[in-house]
Automatic annotation (TrEMBL):
GO terms for molecular function: metal ion binding. This is Damage-inducible protein DinB. The keyword Methyltransferase does not apply. A divalent metal cation binds at residues 69, 152, 156.
Length: 177
């Protein structure tokens, strides 16, 4: 009987530890995503609107195009999570070029919020489920897609901060912690 109680106790501790670990991971991503959102918006705010068309050389995207591309990536990658998961994000980008800086910053914030909301709606099993991906040889999970989005944002935000420097504009202080 004592062995049975010990086994039940160990089983319950394993289950509750795993659940607690899941909660921590969800909270960690959510708080990191919020910091990523806020920092990205601060970088976008730092560039004056009349310099959004700035392009250091012809073969690279302009500041404005980089920002739009980051949000397009959210929509396109979200579509791999389920049927048309990212379409609402992509729809917001229609006529991006005709919008002013304030409208664009609102869209950026909203796109980040939509992705953040997707994270919280999935269980751990759903996050770890392999989903169809455009590179068939890669076994991609929903969690992997979120990580890919985060890496993609870091890459393109780095390009935005470089464009700020090239225009002698101070980048916002980094807030990755």
């Amino acid at each position: 009987m004592r062995i049975l109680k010990s086994l039940i106790f160990i089983l319950l501790m394993t289950i509750s530890t795993q659940s607690f670990s899941d909660i921590i991971e969800q909270e960690t991503f959510a708080s990191r995503w919020l910091r990523t959102k806020n920092y990205t918006i601060e970088v976008a705010k730092a560039m004056p609107e009349d310099k959004y068309a700035y392009r250091p050389v012809e073969k690279v995207m302009s500041f404005d195009e980089e920002l739009k591309h980051m949000m397009e990536n959210f929509g396109k990658l979200s579509n791999f999570m389920g049927e048309n998961e990212g379409q609402e994000i992509l729809d917001q980008l229609v006529d991006w070029e005709s919008k002013d800086k304030t409208e664009k910053l609102k869209i950026v914030a909203d796109c980040f919020d939509k992705v953040g909301a997707k994270w919280t709606k999935y269980s751990e099993d759903e996050l770890n489920a392999i989903v169809p991906f455009f590179k068939k040889e890669i076994k991609m999970t929903r969690q992997g897609i979120f990580e890919l989005m985060n890496d993609h944002i870091a890459h393109h935000r780095g390009r935005l901060t470089l464009m700020l420097s090239m225009n002698e504009i101070q980048s916002p202080n980094y807030v990755g912690w």
